[in-house]
Amino acid sequence: MVIGALLALVGFGVTPSTAATTATLTVSAAIGQQNGSVGTVVGYVVGQPTAANTVIRSGYTADTALALADSASTTSTGSMLYVQIPSGFRAQYGLKTNPGLLGAQITVTGTLTPYFTPHAGLKDPTAFSGGGGSDPGDPGDPGDYYAAASGKTGAALKSALHTIISSQTKLTYDQVWNALKDTDQDPANSNNVILLYSGRSQAKSTNGGGVNDWNREHVWAKSHGDFGTATGPGTDVHHLRPEDVSVNSARGNLDFDNGGSAVTECPGCTADSDSFAPRAAVRGDVARMIFYMAVRYEGDDGWPNLEPNNSVNNGTAPYIGKLTVLKAWSAADPPDAFEKRRNQVIYDTWQHNRNPFIDHPEWVSSIWP
């Protein structure tokens, strides 16, 4: 009977693999089923594969492939499925054209066979769907939070967002320590935090002022407006991040710009006499923290009116630059799972307000065209 069935398939020009019923698979199941069968895979977009063991999460170079994983926070390429993107789907699913797709859940149907050989892959897809979903571990913003900003653009949008996010619980500078141990927790090790600029995973317990400790970095340098560490902008965890003591010192109160020389203990970071650039993976994070501060602190609550400008060497003025560079960083490095989770934890547990540019990165160009 089995031989007869196979002969019948051959007689009609159909092979057993293509005759198989399409299955719905997780990414891990698809990785284990690289047998040429057709499968429908559901996963989260985690970057663009450029080689068998390399996936980039910003600065995308093409629309021809993407990587899927079972969690939006996955960083191990061994847990990723590389998906070929045929020309007909590139305008909607290519990451160079659609960088905001990073972290979204999508469904793809195609042939389960190695791509970027020998990496597990899905080739010649016939269907893509989704793109609006998000990892349950990285919930999006509550829709009604921004209701008052609906339909607004430019200055009107900035004003509406200022009113929305100014409703917050304010922390003391001592409380910031515990907040950062929660907001910046390493997703792979709950005993550690991820240091912003250097990217190092370090024990939560090593906070302090020692050479290899981590401390509280003010991304909007506190001297730019002279607000110090008093409760207010000096303790707002939307722009306070864990960082190695010496790297924090190397950044100092420098403005942000491209260029410069390598920074010790900070792979991918550069600095010169008037500016600092973090590693590429968090440049968008830095930009969106700056934009948050500029909207939250408008000079109407006893604190300076903070604004980005297109200068460096801003000194103690309530300005920080460069705006054009920060806008480019935000566009090139869209919000990822870590940044989205951080925003949610701040909202749920600590300050009960949100960074609107993590939830809606498109608002950057509306407010600062």
From TrEMBL:
Signal peptide: 1-19
Chain spans, region Disordered: 123-144
Source superkingdom: Bacteria
Stretches assigned to the Endonuclease YhcR N-terminal domain: 25-129
This protein's UniProt keywords: Hydrolase, Nuclease, Signal
PANTHER family: ENDONUCLEASE-1
Protein name in the entry: Endonuclease YhcR N-terminal domain-containing protein
